[in-house]
Specification:
Shape: elongated
Strand order of the largest sheet: 3-4-1-6
Number of helices: 7
Order of helices and strands: HEEEEEEEEHHHHHH
Helix content: 25-40%
Distance between the termini: 45 Å
Number of strands: 8
Radius of gyration: 20 Å
C-alpha cells in the first residue's frame, strides 16, 4: 500500500507540473477529494489515475491565470496523494490556497479606505463591497460590463472599471458583473 501512496503522490505532482509547463502564465492545482473553488479559473477534464488491481481514481484539475483571483479550499484529507499545486503565484495556508491577482491590487488602489484598514481585498469585497456597490475589477467582469452596456464600449476609451467607479455605480440601472 505504501508503494501505491508514493505512486499517487508522484502522479499529482507530475500532472500539475506538466500542465504549468504546457500553459505558461498559469498555475495548476489537482484534487481528488472534496473541495471548493471560486474566482477565475479554467476547469480541465477530469484526469484519471489507473493502477492494476486498484480502484480508478479521478482528479479535478484547474488552471489559474497569473493575474486572476481564485480561492481553493480542500475539504477532505490532505497530502500529495489527494492534491497538489504547482506554479509561482499562489499562497497556501493549511487547506486553503489563494491567488490574489492583479484585480486585488486594483481594488485596493481604487478604495484606499480598504487598503488603509489592511483588509484582504477579496474578503472585503465579499463581506462589504458588494453591498456598497463596489465592483471587483477582474478581466472577465470588465468584458461583461462592456457587453452589457454598449454605450460605454462605444464612448469610453479607458478601463471599464474606472467608468463604473466614476459614473456607473451612481446610476441605479448599471450593475457591475460578478
Amino acid at each position: 500500500m505504501l508503494y501505491v501512496t508514493r505512486v499517487r503522490e508522484e502522479f499529482t505532482q507530475d500532472i500539475t507540473k506538466r500542465f504549468v509547463e504546457q500553459n505558461p502564465g498559469y498555475d495548476a492545482i489537482a484534487c481528488g477529494v472534496r473541495h471548493s473553488i471560486r474566482g477565475e479559473y479554467i476547469t480541465l477534464p477530469g484526469i484519471k489515475f489507473e493502477m492494476l488491481l486498484m480502484p480508478l481514481f479521478y482528479y479535478d484539475v484547474y488552471l489559474i491565470r497569473h493575474g486572476d483571483w481564485a480561492r481553493f479550499e480542500l475539504q477532505g484529507d490532505g497530502g500529495y496523494i489527494n492534491w497538489a499545486m504547482y506554479g509561482s503565484r499562489y499562497k497556501r495556508e493549511g487547506n486553503i490556497v489563494t491567488w490574489e491577482g492583479d484585480a486585488a491590487e486594483q481594488y485596493l488602489k481604487c478604495y484606499p479606505d480598504v487598503a488603509k484598514a489592511n483588509s484582504p481585498a477579496w474578503d472585503h469585497y465579499v463581506r462589504h463591497g458588494r453591498k456598497e456597490r463596489r465592483g471587483w475589477p477582474s478581466h472577465a467582469s470588465k468584458v461583461q460590463y462592456l457587453a452589457d452596456y454598449p454605450d460605454v464600449a462605444q464612448n469610453w476609451n479607458a478601463d471599464p472599471y474606472l467608468h463604473y467607479l466614476k459614473h456607473g455605480r451612481k446610476e441605479p440601472n448599471r450593475i457591475w458583473p460578478e
